[in-house]
Amino acid sequence: MRKAEVYFKNELAGELKQLDDGSFIFHYTTQWLEDSNKRPISLTLPKRIDPYQSPYLFAFFFNMLPEGANKEVVCFHKRIDKDDHFGILLATAKYDTIGAVTIKAIKA
Questions:
Q1: What digits encode the pLDDT tens for the residues 12-25?
Q2: Taking the model in full, what pTM does it have?
């Protein structure tokens, strides 16, 4: 299993996991859910107590991935398989993303 913290404007909002079978789970932190001033990280992932589950990387996170030549360069230099979407996300969404969300790996 691989895990990552999901930050919204540098505040911890939730956790994203890739299970050993390749499926994904996303859930908001209790603090994020309880604060009515905190908005969801995406319209496709509204705030709720129950975790979101998917056999594939959620579209919101998939859309954060580099494409084309940028993806090839990242995969080559970081030695990541081009089909390892979670690995690419962990390698590229740590600091500077287009939106307010960043992703930071949780080391086991």
A1: 999 999 999 999 99
A2: 0.90
